Amino acid sequence: MEATTASVGSRRTTSAPDAPRLDLRALGDRAYQIAITSFAVAIPLLLVLIAVSIFAAAWPALTRSGLSFLTQSRWDVASGEFGAAPAIFGTVVSSAIALIIATPLALGVSIFLSEIAPGWLRQPVAFFVDLLAAVPSVVYGLWGIFVLIPILRDPVGPFLRDTLHLGGLPLFSGPNYGYSMLAAGVILAIMILPYIAAVTREVLRAVPRAQREAALALGATKWEMIRDAVIPYARSGIVGGIILGLGRALGETMAVTMVIGNRPEISASLFAPGYTMASLIANEFTEATNDLHLSALMAVGAVLFLVTLIVNAIARWLVWRVSRGPAP
Amino acid sequence: MKRLSLVPFFLAAIACGGDKQNTGTPATASARSGAVDLTGAGATFPYPLYSKWFADYANAKGIKINYQSIGSGGGIRQISEGTVDFGASDSPMKDDELAKAKGPILHIPTVLGAVVVTYNVPELTKPLNLSGDVVADIFTGKIKKWNDRRIAALNPGVQLPASDILVVHRSDGSGTTYVFTDYLTAVSPSWKAGPGKGKEVTWPVGLGGKGNEGVSGQVKQTPGAIGYIELAYAKQNNLPFAAIKNASGKFVLPSVEAVTAAAAATADKLPENTDYRVSIVNAAGENAYPISSFTWILVYQQQPDSVKGRKLVDFLRWALTDGEKQATTLDYAPLPETMASRLQQRLGTIKIGAGA
Predict the structure, then answer these.
(1) Chain B residues with CB-CB distance to A253 below 8 A
(2) Chain B residues within 8 A of A284 when measuring between CB atoms
(3) What's the pTM value of the predicted model, to 2 decimals?
(4) Which chain B residue has the Cα nearest residue A180?
(5) Rounded to an integer, what distance in angstroms lies between the CA atom of residue A89 and that of residue B31?
């Protein structure tokens, strides 16, 4: 006890003269500034380094295949032919299906929570929607294999084809084994739903109260108020949320690999198996020994990296636009 | 991802390893705990057995071995770069891969694995009989129905359904695929001219599943499906498998004994200076199961570090004697005894120390 007081006292006395203390503080500020700046620079630098190293590793395959890497369908390790078109197609299509399914659901849930739901219901529903994001993707994959795929094979397939008479469309043609682009799309939809819902909910809550009251004062019904005053105001933010979900769908690996059937073919049918870029890398990387094969997988990674980077940049821009002022 | 595929194996390994540790003397193990003596990396297929070996060896001799089951490809890359003391692979290294290594590499076979053809045909009450050319034509899509007359001819008196065959194969690069396609290449000229052999090939038809559990999951879920998986996985999960017609014309069900028989038939014919990079698919021998293969540990013939080199050779000697005895408990086929003793001589050719 005595020692503590003594040391406190002595510190006070040494810090009493003014000049050296100020210098020390200035030095501290300077060090702090340098440290913080270097952190800030390090993150973008990391991104650049990752991009550079991926592209450098991908270079041998890209120069060898050229543009045919993006357009060819044949992926044959033995002959050294690498065409990633089916994987690119699969990534884009499965993510598109996911968006088509998840967007209305997520919007519905967010509008309900921000505009309609009674106070006591808001928290629990929001909690459960958010919880969907916490489920590991491998668990979604297992659920897909054991629950979703049998359902797609039996009630859903025959319903679409025979009950709705859609079997003649190329979209629903061919054998239906359950492992398909459709299965991947549905799984992805469930996985990205919480992301879209969370962003949309926040954006809707950011809409000023005056906006709503003005609409109501003009005699709008609740539905008209939501449609004409709230949604347009939040539009770009909602689009940003959707694109954030898309970014996640593009990169999802495990759950998709488990249900998509892993067949590098481009098919018009939703019931046909497909492949995605992320699945291709995950499947082949561990056993890839030859240099060109590794490089080709890196090239797939580079394409995936570019696509997700662009998508995320668009999302950032849209969210930034909505946060700085009213919509046009 | 890899973790999931190993869950059943992990459980088996923990169950067996746990027993051993409880009954053994923990003092020897804990006395040397902390420092790792040897590191290895590679194949996932023998990992459950290897991890049991390492645990038992640590208990018995106090030598700790750290093994990462990152896949055969990674094992070959890491031993070539010299970042591990030994590699492990389900397929032998190719000549150009050997040329890139830092010195001569020895292939030491440890145990044998087999690939079984599994299927989902609820109508069947006893194992299906299949021959190599029929399997090849099923997997190329030439045989499309279960009641195809060529399948029926191999199964007289069996009522086969008229349903479509759905082929399921591995989507990930795998030693299992290598062994299976190695066999099909050996027995079917059209397969040899078409997809050929490799850890990943371009499949003419079918769905891809990731890992043994991915393939077996799809087969179990889909009536009419056919796929190929490892014997150990099939046995531990009670999956049905076909009897395959071997080189002697006999239908043989996969079993640990039938796999060892395939190795014995081939091993006796190996020349004295063999590098053990040999395929044993479609082996002669009346009881030999034809879709079998060695799995290898890869070590440098020159061991510059005399302490590590000595430990490594001692471990391999132990693995080929005491280790082999544990193989069957985890559904791996042990090496034929004559071959294990010949390999002991081969271990004697490893040169230890800087002067080597």
Answers:
(1) 1
(2) 172-173, 200
(3) 0.80
(4) B207
(5) 57
